[in-house]
Amino acid sequence: MIPGTESSLRIFIPARPSRAVAALVVAVVLFSALAASQLPASAQQFPTEISGRVVQGTAGSAVPAGLSVVLLIVDEQRQEIISNESTLVGTNGEFSFTDYVTGPGLTYRVAADNGEHTPSVDLTPGESSFSDVEITIYDSTASFDDIRISTYSLLVPDIDRVERLMGVLGVVSLINSGDRVWIPDLDNPALTGLDLLRFNLPEGFTDLSVESNLPAGNVLEIPTGFALTNPLPPGEFDILMTFVVGYSGDSLEFPLRLPYGAGQVRIMLPEGAGTVSGLGFGPSEGAIIDETAYSIVDGVDYPRDSQLDVKFSSLPTPSLVESTQSFLDGRGYIILIAWVAGAAMLGLLIYAFFFARQRKASSQAIPAGTYPEYEGLKRTAIVEAIARLDEQHAAAEIEDADYSARRAVLTQAALAARVTEVQPT
């Protein structure tokens, strides 16, 4: 199983040159592009060898003999694999490829295939080193001992008081502090949800959507929430989830369980939309996010198997006129779904507030050549692009396949982007 392409955000600040300078720059760029197009492929000096080594990241273990390294050659314009090669590592984990397809528009992925988890490295001619590729592998474990949640955040962007429905965005940051990759034993006939990465949600949730920057795996929706089969290598990874949940009266109880503990739990409601209480939560604080006021509560240092018993109280309820209108018109469910999609986009924008730290952003958010109109976008622009894309899809202005592909690229770019803490008011 070869993992999907990771993407991250390219950040740049455009200058404002004079007209003369701008014209000169355009002329130089056009001349350079024309000159490059006139060069034969052989003159562009594509790397003729890919070499490196596989290293063992688990203490006391060695790179297994007979380990395969796979080279995938990807045509970026067509977004398809056009060729693949395989070789075995040497005694010290070294490997090399010398007989492979080269040419403009091609990128390369080198993966160590140990049958369970396939860590990989992506290479782009002119940007990556092809001579010192290093791939780190790990022994596997099914133990959760080294897995912990660093931050668990829930945001309620808005509430439909007429239908008594909340659209919720959640962001969970998972840390594997060990030196083994966590992989569930899916061949075990006694496998249960307790053996998977699991997260519970409020009773009666609907319209669940889960995305992450974990290696490839599956999302299993269960009555109490969802579970993941994705491998979890050493390091830190993020899970983004959205769902809809209804409440009765003016309150909602959520027995939030933390089987892996948590360094911080944070819940945000629009100011004046209710109150939140739960185990270990401090007093409410206020913050302004994208010109919207929020009320925030949080708690820290939760041990494993904690249950917070979160309760939302004094939630908005419909007036008599609204209740009557709702009864006559029926549920505005389609409108709500569109609203939830907007809530997810707003959640991406305030993603920084959840984690209160800077993340390292890599050099490219959108794979070069995939969707040129998205390349070089900053985080806010990515969120705006997702919003426009959803509006086009809702208006049937874009086909489902194109919509899904574009939204997946933009969402992964948002997950990998650099984020900053939003200051409380």
Please specify the SSE layout and strand pairing.
Blueprint (H helix, E strand, L loop, with lengths): L18 H20 L11 E7 L11 E8 L4 E9 L5 E4 L8 E8 L6 E4 L9 E5 L2 E2 L5 E9 L3 E2 L4 E12 L4 E2 L14 E4 L5 E7 L6 E4 L2 E4 L6 E12 L5 E3 L2 E2 L3 E9 L4 E3 L7 E5 L2 E11 L3 E2 L2 E4 L6 H10 L3 H17 L1 H5 L23 H16 L5 H17 L9
Parallel strand pairs: 1-7, 8-12, 9-20
Antiparallel strand pairs: 1-4, 2-3, 2-5, 5-6, 9-11, 10-11, 11-17, 13-16, 14-17, 15-16, 18-25, 19-24, 20-23, 21-25, 22-23
Helix pairs in contact: 3-5, 5-6
What does this structure look like?
The structure is a single chain. By secondary structure, the chain is of the alpha+beta class. The protein folds into 2 domains: 99 residues, Immunoglobulin-like (Sandwich), CATH 2.60.40; 211 residues, Immunoglobulin-like (Sandwich), CATH 2.60.40. 20% of the residues lie in helices and 33% in strands. The chain contains 6 helices and 25 strands. Strands 9, 10, 11, 14, 17, 20, 22 and 23 form an 8-stranded mixed sheet that branches. The protein has a 4-stranded antiparallel sheet with strand order 3-2-5-6, with no helix packed on it. A hairpin with a 4-residue loop joins strand 2 and strand 3. 31% of the residues are buried. The N terminus and C terminus are likely disordered.
